[in-house]
């Protein structure tokens, strides 16, 4: 994968995630809703399992823009890809919809969780 774009039409908005290979590492750009923006940046690094079960894990550092709630989405993607690809991953972006409901937030989270990495 040099570059891959995944678009999901949600019931109320569109979600776009762009994966770009950078050497042996990856950059992920997440955007969508009424106004795309950068609300969060996550740097994830692969590491051995902390549970001792042999499954790879990852550790993340997060920078949030004050008042933004994009961390869950970016952190989920960055940590999952870092562990599965044994690579350094940066995920940045934001998803914004004015007046978003709890149900809609859940829909966005599920859409991100269902993406194959």
From TrEMBL:
Domain Prenylated flavin chaperone LpdD-like residues, every copy: 14-114
What this protein is called in its record is: Prenylated flavin chaperone LpdD-like domain-containing protein
Short name of any one Pfam family annotated for the protein = PAC_bac
Q: What is the lineage of its organism?
A: Bacteria, Bacillati, Bacillota, Clostridia, Lachnospirales
